[in-house]
Amino acid sequence: MNNVVNFLNFDPCIKAMPAMGNLFQTHSMFYRFHLLFILWLAACQSYPQNESPKTISYPVGTVQESLMMQSTILGHDVQYSVYLPPGYEASDRSYPVLYLLHGYTDDETAWVQKGEISKTADQGIAAGEVAPMVIVMPDGGVSFFVDDYLAKEKYETFFFQELMPAIEKAYRIRQEKKYRAVGGLSMGGYGAAIYAMHRPDLFSTCVALSSAFRTDEDMATMKPKKYNRIFNKLYGEGTGAERITAHWHQNSPNYLAQTLPAEQLKSIRWYIDCGDDDGLSPGNAMMHIILKERGIAHEYRMRNGKHDWHYWRTGMAEGLKFISESFRK
Questions:
Q1: pLDDT of residue 41
Q2: For every residue of 134-168, which 3-state class applies, written as one string?
Q3: Which range has the worst mean pLDDT, 51-65, 72-86, 146-160, 202-216?
Q4: Which residues pair with 3 in a beta bridge?
Q5: What's the Rg (C-alpha) of the chain?
Q6: Half-sphere exposure of 30 toward its Cβ, with a 13 Å CA cutoff?
Q7: If you average pLDDT over every residue of the chain, what do you get?
């Protein structure tokens, strides 16, 4: 306070008003109070007091993480996580379902822990932009969610013959094509496209983010070290054109997009999104070109970004909206 008063006593603006000197001296306490009050208000605006941050309140769903089911087909247990929308436990209604697949080397926890899918779904539902849905996230290991060429690891067979029936019996899920969607990122985006193409009778919508879409040329020219580490157990051993087998074509989304009946592809709503700095962008761009040339309606996005969780979190926020449009038709 003394510092402020001294400042007022030596204010050059006040010294420059000799004609009002007597008046100022007479009412010095009034002016000092007035100016101090103004300074106090300014200080309050410039340095706000510590306040509790405002919180946005909305209903939240439930996540059941790393549940276990036995698989006779695979010969081992498989883990999966499930998101149940707000109000699921308190209602008796049935819900649409999204089967959401993870990327290479991830597992059933990735979309929950890294992708924050429950937060994205909760916020979208609260805003009225996303339909309440059950989201199922199985662990696919490094299987690319397909059956291998020797039929030793038949993940796709497991998915359709064991996982889906068990899930749709355990949870209140609407079991019509219209109310099923499949989605994923990278390896999971590839798997989602394969499932939609192999079983268009089961899914209405496919959301594929940064998907592992590769052409025949990509596979034939891939360096042996990479091919042998990732793909030889899935599609078969070999080099160059030897890799372009019938099993590869049966599990190549780009090849299937060129060869499957157009009406079959048109029965799916497609959403494809891959970043411009993603090494997989050429294969995704090629998928867009194939679908466009064949007259297959689809949404294609190439946003600024790379192969990372920031891209997938923002991408799935839009993907859930796209899926919800199908569920609400």
A1: 55
A2: EEEEECCCCCCCCECCCCCCEHHHHHHHHHHHHHH
A3: 51-65
A4: none
A5: 30
A6: 5
A7: 89
Token duo for residue 6: 């001294």
Read off φ and ψ for residue 136, nearest 5 degrees: -110, 130
Residue linked to tokens 């839009």: 318
Which regions of the chain does DSSP assign to beta strands (E)?
Answer: 62-71, 76-84, 97-101, 134-138, 180-185, 205-209, 269-273, 298-301
Token pair 């939609």 is found at 196
Instruction: For residues 69 and 299, give the distance between their C-alpha atoms in angstroms, rounded to a whole number.
Output: 35
The amino acid present at 233, given as its one-letter code, is K
Query: Does residue 90 sit in helix, strand or coil?
Result: coil
Q: Where are the domains of the chain?
A: 2-46, 62-214+252-327
Pairing of strands 76-84, 134-138: antiparallel
Give the model confidence (pLDDT) of 38-95 as tens digits: 555 555 454 444 545 556 689 999 999 999 999 999 999 999 999 999 999 999 999 9
Q: Does domain 62-214+252-327 have CATH number 3.40.50.1820?
A: yes
- The reported pLDDT for the residue numbered 306 is 97
Partnered with residue 206 across adjacent β-strands are 182, 270
**Model confidence pLDDT, tens digit, residues 172-194:** 999 999 999 999 999 999 999 99
